[in-house]
Structure formats: C-alpha cells, structure tokens
Automatic annotation (TrEMBL):
EC number(s) on file: 5.1.99.6
Gene behind the chain: nnrE
Enzymatic reactions: (6R)-NADHX = (6S)-NADHX; (6R)-NADPHX = (6S)-NADPHX
Cell inner membrane as UniProt keyword: no
Catalytic class of the enzyme: isomerase
InterPro entries according to UniProt: YjeF_N_dom, YjeF_N_dom_sf
Residues where K(+) binds: 58, 124, 160
Binding site for (6S)-NADPHX: 57-61, 128-134, 157
GO molecular function, one term: NAD(P)HX epimerase activity
Name by which UniProt lists this protein: NAD(P)H-hydrate epimerase
Amino acid sequence: MRLVTSAQMKQIERNAVLAGLSYSEMMENAGRVAFGALSAYHDFEGETALVFAGKGNNGGDGLVLARMLWRAGAKVTVLLCDGEPQTKEATANLSLLPRTVAVLNLAYETQALEGLSKPDFVVDALYGTGFHPPFEMRDRQAAQWMNCCGAPVYALDLPSGVDADMARADCDAVRARCTFAFDSLKYAHCREPAKGYCGEVHCLNIWIPEECHRGLYWEIEEQ
Ligand SMILES: NC(=O)C1=CN([C@@H]2O[C@H](COP(=O)(O)OP(=O)(O)OC[C@H]3O[C@@H](n4cnc5c(N)ncnc54)[C@H](O)[C@@H]3O)[C@@H](O)[C@H]2O)[C@H](O)CC1
Ligand SMILES: [K+]
C-alpha cells in the first residue's frame, strides 16, 4: 500500500488534473467509493445519518456522500461546522443537495448540536489532510459530540483532529469505527497516536491513473 505525505497527495492530484481528471471528478469519486464501502455496514433505507462537513474539500467529499445516502433512502442531516464551504468543488456539491436534506450551519445555529438525537451512523467529513492541530472551539465541540453520541463514526480520508504527516492527534480527535482513506495511505493511518483514532482503515481507489504517482518518492506499508 502506498504511503504519502499530504504534499505528495496534492502533487498526485495535480498530476491527475494534467491527466484529464478534474478536482470535481475526484471529489465525486471519493464520495462514491465511500458510499460503496459504507454499504458493507449499513442498508441506508430509512436509516438516519448525520454528516459533519468542514469548510474544505474533505467537507466536499462529505456533501457528495450525503447526496448518495439520501438517494439510497437515508434520512440525512448535514452539519456545516465552519460555515459555508470555502472551495469551488465543495460549494457546488452543497448546491446539489436536495431540499429534503436538512442543512444546519453551526456558524449561525450555535445551539444546534444540543438538539440532535443519536443517528444510526455519523460521517466525519470535518477535516482531512489539510488539518493541523489543535481544534478551534466549534470543531472541538463537533468532534466531542461525534465521540459521545454512541453511533458508529465513519471518517472520510482521516479522522478529524489528526495531522496527516506528523501523526499527531488533538486530544478530542474523532474516534472512528472505520476510516476510508482516498487513493493512498497517509502517515496518520499507520503511526501512533493518530493511528489509534482511525479504527479499521480501508484505502479506496478514486480512479487517479497509476502514472500520476510516478516520480514521487513514497513508502510501502504492509497491510
Ligand atoms: N483536492 C481535491 O480536489 C480532492 C481532495 N479530497 C479531499 O480533500 C481533503 C483535503 O482538503 P483540503 O481542502 O486541502 O483540507 P481540509 O478539508 O482537510 O481542511 C480545510 C482547511 O482547514 C484549514 N485548517 C487547517 N487546520 C485548521 C485548524 N486547526 N482549525 C481551523 N482550520 C484549519 C486549512 O486551511 C484547510 O485548507 C482530503 O483529505 C480529501 O478528503 C478528495 O479526496 C478528492 C479530491
Ligand atoms: K474526516
């Protein structure tokens, strides 16, 4: 299994764009493969799902997944933990959500967490490779809620609160049942203390062509 830094992952994504795959297609693929992996654990029809989405592209992956969960019959609530998305692709995916998906913006609805009931499962799309500890207060509260709600948490790419490269973890980092890593493993999936927050790690192919990984130095991690 390939093991890359967050800078190498960004280079791989840039190579993918040069090879003809857009950022928006990569985000769609990430949401889609996470949906496929999650279907091994849940039926979706009639289930309640809470998707915690951050302001970056990890949040965008979560918005794609939210749309697919809704399409599969789940009752989906999206929590925008840091306000509106800040990237073009994530913004586009917010606008693609159907009206029957409830969207709560924690930047304005500051008491929203207190009114939430335990869902059947939680998707952690707060932060991925862009995060550097520590959490700010609102993110900390969201992560604490995920850790205390009693429902299984599925993390997209990384559990929020861990540093992809240094494998450090905020003390309130999300404790995932499963982490769906995209394209390649990052150091946080393999090194303590971050590894301890990941649960089962599944590395998923988001259809970045193989040649986009050439010329970069990466390690091989036994799985
Ligand atoms: N690039 C792509 O098209 C794809 C990326 N994928 C997914 O994207 C994330 C990485 O996304 P990015 O926007 O770079 O970062 P994050 O979403 O993790 O974080 C957003 C943003 O937050 C800022 N930040 C960092 N630390 C803190 C902090 N302590 N408090 C507040 N804010 C913080 C920082 O500026 C970040 O930019 C990757 O993991 C994938 O999930 C897709 O897989 C496919 C395409
Ligand atoms: K995450």
